[in-house]
Design brief:
This protein has three helices and three strands. It has a three-stranded parallel beta sheet with strand order 2-1-3, sandwiched between helices. The longest helix has 13 residues.
Length: about 70
């Protein structure tokens, strides 16, 4: 396995396409459709990398990044 990636993206088609691509290249992938959902997943998923959309409903990408750090 190449590692784990958390995708935080509110556009379902884009999130699905990124997930498919990464899984084909050996990554374990989890998706969240909001920053709040992504932040809630961090403890149980523990990704090596996060792909984070900037324009999200609720908490935006920059606010989420501050909490992730």
């Amino acid at each position: 396995m190449s590692g784990a990636v958390l995708i935080v993206e509110d556009e379902a088609v884009l999130a699905k396409n990124m997930r498919t691509y990464l899984e084909r290249h050996g990554y374990e992938v989890a998706c969240a459709d909001s920053a709040e959902a992504g932040l809630a997943m961090l403890d149980r998923f523990a990704p090596d990398a996060v792909v984070l959309d900037f324009n999200l409903p609720g908490i935006d990408g920059l606010q989420a990044l501050e909490r992730i750090r």
